[in-house]
Design goal:
The protein has 435 residues and is α/β, with parallel strands linked by helices. The protein is built from 11 helices and 20 strands. It has 2 domains: 273 residues, 3-Layer(aba) Sandwich (Aminopeptidase); 132 residues, Aminopeptidase i, Domain 2 (Roll), CATH 2.30.250.10. Bound molecules: zinc ion (ZN). Zinc ion binds next to helix 6.
């Protein structure tokens, strides 16, 4: 893996994945090109050695796996990440027409840092279900090419306290502005607008009417390598598409005879409890069909390990007091092992040791994070997967700033470093007994 190529691929992946549906579609295309075969959950599976397959659930979650040359009973080297990011979702009946303006009502998805969403050139993307000319239900992914909306700030002259006291009321302050209308009596129908746009942008899609949609707004500014010495990557959705991309690269770049899994789940930012989220049965059901239920499954899991990759908080130089003095991860200081005695992270000394050892063998840096003792700790899919499967787990992640902003920042060295360690993990011939 070469850094310039790797980062070029990462930037492209970030730009082409405005929603979890698009991220899974991008990952699927890479897997197809690499010779992986898509399986459907409602079909019979018979998996032998040296198989490379993937399964998608609800469009936003994916499990890719290779069975390797040996028995999968020897255990799997698993990497997990999440495909979703905090954003603004369009409400089911979104049209708001007042004061000569068309706006759309939005729901806040996940823990959005709201202020950075103002004054951005926004567009819409997601999944649409429609009725075709024959009365059948179809679905398509859409991502409008052009910026179509904006949430303008209130001018400082109309709010003199803005720099001291401005807070954001999600119901009142956020509906993005799409157009001016001649009269407030105009009643544009969002579904009809959507259908027209799809016919225009996807002439091959036979849309009679739009039935329903899961659409979110996103910033149209593309991902970029920035900084005096090109040491940063700025983009939307670094949390957690960076980890999805690193996991995918590792799976494709590691020893193909070793049994390995990549799972990318939707719905992490809203607690993971869904049919396709990490707290649901998706991964377990794929693994059970791989090994067979009962004893073989339990034996396989006991010999497996999961590395849950999700970005970590780097120390912010303007707010250094928000980190414990000995645990302030630096951008470009290497991936961060996340530790929490209260099990908000699933890392333990055995899984940490394995990761640290892999990094040392490659001569790559690793950092540690533990939250300040007087602050609450975040969490991720690691503890959820560990609890659901009973598999030993490690939580790691690339350090980043501005987490959950519309534009986040990470180092330009760290993603490749993480991918290289993950590839080395997924090339391990046998996992050591880790007790
Ligand atoms: Zn995350």
């Amino acid at each position: 893996m070469d850094k310039a190529n790797f980062n070029r691929g990462l930037l492209e992946f970030l730009d082409q994945s405005p929603t979890p549906f698009h991220a899974v579609s991008q990952i699927s295309q890479r897997l197809d090109a690499a010779g992986f075969r898509r399986l459907k959950e409602d079909e019979d599976w018979t998996l032998g050695p040296n198989e490379r397959i993937y399964v998608v659930r609800n469009g936003g979650s994916i499990v890719a796996l290779r069975t390797g040359s040996d028995s999968v009973g020897q255990g799997l080297r698993m990497v997990g990440a999440h495909t979703d990011s905090p954003c603004l979702r369009v409400k089911p009946q979104p049209e708001l027409i007042e004061h000569g303006c068309l706006r759309l009502g939005v729901e806040v998805y996940g823990g959005v840092l709201l202020n950075p969403w103002f004054d951005r050139d926004l567009s819409l993307a997601g999944r649409v279900h429609y009725r075709d000319g024959n009365g059948r239900i179809g679905s398509t992914l859409i991502a409008f090419e052009q910026p179509i909306a904006v949430i303008p700030s209130l001018a400082i002259h109309l709010d003199r306290e803005a720099n001291q006291n401005r807070s954001v009321n999600a119901q009142r302050d956020l509906p993005p502005l799409l157009a001016t209308v001649a009269s407030d009596a105009t009643r544009p129908d969002f579904r009809a607008l959507l259908a027209a746009r799809i016919r225009e942008e996807q002439p091959g899609t036979d849309v009679a009417s739009v039935l329903d949609f899961e659409l979110s707004f996103h910033d149209t500014q593309t991902a970029a390598v920035i900084g005096l010495d090109a040491q940063f990557i700025a983009s939307a959705r670094l949390d957690n598409l960076v980890s999805c991309f690193c996991g995918l690269e590792a799976l494709l770049d590691s020893a193909q005879n070793v049994p390995a899994v990549l799972v990318c789940n939707d719905h992490e930012e809203v607690g993971s409890a869904s049919s396709s989220g990490a707290a649901g049965p998706f991964l377990l059901s794929v693994l059970e069909r791989l090994s067979g239920p009962g004893e073989p499954l339990r034996r396989m899991l006991a010999r497996s390990m999961m590395i849950s990759a999700d970005n970590a908080h780097a120390l912010h130089p303007n707010f250094s007091d928000r980190h414990d003095g000995n645990h302030g991860p630096r951008l470009n200081g290497g991936p961060v092992i996340k530790v929490n005695a209260n099990q908000r992270y699933a890392s333990n000394s055995a899984t940490q040791a394995l990761f640290r050892n892999l990094a040392a063998e490659l001569d790559l840096p690793v950092q540690s994070f533990v939250v300040r003792s007087d602050m609450a700790c975040g969490s991720t899919i690691g503890p959820i997967t560990a609890s659901a499967l009973g598999v030993r787990t490690l939580d790691v992640g690339v350090p980043q700033l501005a987490m959950h902003s519309v534009r986040e920042l990470c180092g330009s060295e760290d993603p490749l470093t993480l991918a290289r360690i993950l590839a080395s993990f997924q090339s391990l011939g046998a996992l050591p007994a880790l007790d």
